[in-house]
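In full, the data:

***
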Amino acid sequence: MGYYDIDDVLADSAEIPCKFNHEIPGLGYLENNPGGSIHVNSQVKLPLWLARVLAIIDVAPDVDPITGVPSEENSAFLTLMTPEAFSTKVINAIKTDPVALDLHSINPQFYALAIKWIGLFSDQDLAEIVSELLLKRAQVINSHANSITISYNNDSINHNNSKSLNNQTVFTLTLDEFEKKIYKQANESYKDIKKWMFQS
């Protein structure tokens, strides 16, 4: 991942549910109140790159006018809430049948977003779940990538019939962008190996 990695940029732009811990003037437009303030406990969705910064930056704590004692309330602008991609429903679906999961419909940059979320919260449980998910799905991806059939006739290479190619297309639609890269690289490798075997 890097500054110019499109998947990294798209993962950073994923909308994350957030809860504001303070009333902030001028941000009312975030909850359809242009010109007004955003209120305490207002929940809005913000891109991860912005939400992450606002969750880290501390606001000067309110001071009680009588006692002069600073408030012990959360001093960050907002609190990050669990995105839909890592909700209990999705985690249960991953644990139940990770292979049948349509990861692309959950989030096209699922793994990139997971890496960022795990890094933010040092979420060991999520890290283990995502690692197991990738391991199990990688085996199926490899199997699909290896299912190409090549015949060597008159210096030409014939690929799968249209029905098999259609199955491969349907399968790749369920993959997130990282998995698609794995599939493409594995598929190209198997093609090269089989081509080499026919030419030997």
